[in-house]
Amino acid sequence: MKKFVFILFSFLLFLPLVYSQKIIENPKKPLNPNAGRILELKEVLRIKDQGEEFFFKQPQFVKVSEDGFIFLHDSNQLLKFTPDGQFVKNLLKKGQGPGEIQQFVRYVLQDKDIFIYDSGNSKILLMDLEGKLLEEFHLTERYSLLLGILGDHFILIKTNFSDAEESTGNIIDYPMSIVVITKKEEVIKEFPGAILRAYRSENIMVNWGRAVTIMSHDGRFCIWTDPEEYMVTVLDMRTGEIVSKFTRPYPRVKAPKRTTDRPGPKIPERKYVSDINYIYTFQGNILVWTSTFDEKRGMLFDLFDKKGTYLDSFWLNVRGTLIATYKNSLFFREYNEEGTVDVVMYLMENE
Fold first, then answer.
1. How much is the pTM?
2. Under DSSP, is residue 77 helix (H, G, I), strand (E, B) or coil?
3. Is residue 290 part of a domain?
4. In CATH, what number is assigned to the domain containing residue 295?
5. DSSP symbol at 330
6. pLDDT at residue 350, rounded to an integer
7. Pairwise CA distance, residues 334 & 347, whole Å
8. Confidence (pLDDT) at 268
């Protein structure tokens, strides 16, 4: 394995990036003749607040280990649950000492290891599935988040604020890069990635659009979106090549008018919301959660393969937020009748 990783990254060092990839313009309708249907979901698991043991705030980034245990990120907690949803423990402790975190950003679950990126202390923790600290890696460079693990190397995102470009008015584009480093923080390769678009004026900076970057479940592909319009890019981390860059005809959704003025400098009204809310990998394909919502049908999702082919489109009538995919199941964050948050696992029955 180590020999393979060495050969792989020796190859990447001299590999020119293929960023002249032609944009795949998909047709309006996907390949599936039954596209546009409402998919039925079957609830198989619901995790609720369990009194004094923990309290859900904004659970996200659910991952499932090989033995079925469920992990999720909530604020500065990494909560572990049994396969049937019983709370086990919080694996993290806030602080600045060994094994402690200050600002928990993202984690990677790989086999029997958990890698946790603490942006506050600028370090990566390596733990086992019980939360036992195995190793710490301190970083001198500040990164936005930890994306994945490739061999013995870390894949991180870095926002290049010094390379900012003004597009129109006070809308600024900050290029982000995907950086592959060793455990000693030696940079193996750096790939151009998504754009962080922000409105900046008079000592204020707010996100303008939503650029999403994820890794595929198998850890091979890095996938990101345009911050505003419908565009997805797929990078193969093993070859360093752009596999696809694709779009489809999409009717943009108008942004709601701001009802109240926030204190401080006035931020201009947006004309449209971002076309893509989030992206996921699902059964080897790319699942796109669009900005389109219908009161009767719910949320509109598109499905593409990694080559950019528009495979399917369907509605999910769930009053919640999709936070993860796992095999043929979906995890949602939902508000219950008591006004508190549940994490619900659904099985997709009629794909």
1. 0.91
2. strand
3. yes
4. 2.105.10
5. E
6. 62
7. 16
8. 86
Residue 247, Cβ density class (10 Å: 0-12 exposed, 13-18 middle, ≥19 buried): middle
Here the tokens at position 288 are 């796109």
Q: Is 217 exposed, middle or buried (0-12, 13-18, 19+ CB in 10 A)?
A: middle
Please check whether residue 75 lies inside any domain of the structure: no
Measured distance CA(107)–CA(343) in Å, rounded: 18
Q: Determine, yes or no, domain membership for 277.
A: yes
Given this model, what pLDDT does residue 54 score?
80
CA pair distance 255, 231, nearest whole angstrom: 19
Residues 70-86 pLDDT 10s: 999 998 899 999 999 99
Residue 233, domain extent:
17-47+194-254+262-351
**Is residue 159 situated within a structural domain?**
no
Q: Which of these, 132, 130, 54, lies nearest to 87 by C-alpha position? A: 54
- The pLDDT value recorded for residue 323 is 96
Tokens at residue 266, please?
């006035």
200-to-144, 177, 244 alpha-carbon distances in Å: 19, 21, 32
Q: Is 275 helix (H, G, I), strand (E, B) or coil?
A: coil
Give me the number of domains the chain comprises: 1
Predicted confidence at residue 187, as pLDDT, reads: 95
Give the span between the Cα atoms of 110 and 98, in whole angstroms. 21
* Beta carbons of 178 and 235 less than 8 angstroms apart: yes
Residues of the chain with pLDDT under 70: 1-21, 51, 260-264, 350-351
Locate 314 and state its tokens. Answer: 């369907």
Alpha helices of the chain — where are they, by DSSP H? 2-13
The strand pairing partners of 100, in sequence order, are 93
